[in-house]
Structures are given as C-alpha cells and as structure tokens.
Amino acid sequence: MRKKNESLRLSIYESLKNRKKPRPERPAERASPEGTLIASYNVHKCVGADRRFDPERISRVIQEIDADVIGLQEADSRFGERTGLLDLRRLERETGLTPVPLAGVNKAHGWHGNVVLFKQGTVRDVHQVNLPGLEPRGALLAEIELARGGTLRIIAAHLGLLHRSRAQQARKILELMNRDSDTPTILLGDLNEWRLGDRSSLNTFQAAFGPLPAAVPSFPSTLPLLALDRIMGNRQGLISTVHVHDTPLARVASDHLPIKAMVSLDAVRAETSAAAQTA
Fold this sequence. Notes:
This protein is an alpha+beta fold. It has one domain: 4-Layer Sandwich (Deoxyribonuclease I, Chain A), CATH 3.60.10.10. It contains 7 helices and 11 strands. The chain has a 6-stranded mixed sheet, covered by helices on one side. Helix 4 packs parallel to helix 5. The protein is globular and about 40 Å long.
C-alpha cells in the first residue's frame, strides 16, 4: 500500500509540475493540415462534472474536436440492457462521423461501451473482443481503409479498475497485436492506468508499441492530474505528439478530457521504403 501511495503522489506531482495554463482552442483547430486526426474520449455516460446528464454537451465537444476517427468509451448505459446514450444520426449529420458497424448489439452504440466513429473511408474488418478480468470489459478492433489512402487498424479499449484485471487485459491486447503486427495500428482509450514503474500495465504494451508517448493528464476534467487516457501507435512516426482537448465545454461535459493526435501513414511508408533500400 505504501508503494502504491508513493506512486500516486509521484504521478500527481509530475502532472502539477508539467502543467501549463490551457490555451483556448478554436473548435476545428488541428495540429497540422496534413494527416488524419484521431481522438479518444471517455464520455462518462454523458454525465458531466456537474453531475448533469447532457448528451448534447458531449456531441458539441465531439464537434469541437473535429476528428477524422474517434474512439468513445462509456457511450452506453452500463446496467441492465445496454442502451446508447447519444443521438448518432444527428451526430453524423452535423459532423460526418459514422459508427463502425457491430454485430449482435440491439440498443447499444458500442461494444462494452466502446464506439469507433470515422468520417471517410471503408471498414474492412471488425472484431469485438471480450477482455479478461472481474468486470465485463471489451476491446473493439476496426480496420479502416482511409479515403485519403492507406489502411489503419484501430484498437479501442476501456481497461478495468483493478490492477490484476488491467494486467490480464493488456496481455490479451498484446496477443491480438501479435497476430498481425504489419498493419499500422493505433491503440486508444481509457486504460485506467496511473501507475509509474515496473508495476504499471502500460509496460506490457511496449513490446508491440515501443516507447510510449509522454503522459498527457486528462482526468479529472476540472483539474487534470492523471493520464488515464492514451493514444499509441505501433510504428515510429505514426502519430504526432498527443494533446489534450482542453476547452471550457470539455471541462464540464465529462469527468475526462478528450485527447487527440495526428496520424501520418506517409511517415510510415517513408520509413518502410528507407528500410527496404538499406536492407
């Protein structure tokens, strides 16, 4: 317990030390005009930091982000018959974002609350994976052929609250990666891991994703101290620096802030070509 508390204090200290005053963002602001903007957002069942249920606010934050691909967590009610909480048809009309189609779901938007939305492209493959652990958790794998060219695989996940469960779930995702490590792949979602050091389940992902991007605190939204949300790629240069989407509306709409990054398949192609020439 002492080591756990020390790790938490260190994580909070590092977040406070590196914290900068948020810069106001324009709704459609992007890090670069090139590439594909991806994002991850735990919408907390559309309950905001003010404890008010308001799906409209979540939709407006999604519009602010203006992502080409976005993974949502907790987009469905959790108990009883899972029911989607957003107006996806209206969201599609207003943003162009379409949900990746799923099998065997009736009223739910996603798989264990995980939803992947994309703007332009074609879904080539979808897998709905149950993750091990005491809580019902899942991962959604979607292979999307992008309209601008190239194929991108998205693994959208929401890991458990218990350390032992997260360790099992991380190993399961690594097993999925080992089946096909050639496709440019993005892992995104609420990984629920704030620990630092050897006991962190994030270390498991380094075998497939290499050195992890710098932590970006996104929780709680009113004073983000912990980097529970993550975006990582399995190729060097595949994603740009991960940023938090910190706006006044995002701070109240959910208990998590969204995070985002730019994907460049061109950088991966250039790296692959250079490696082939030197081989």
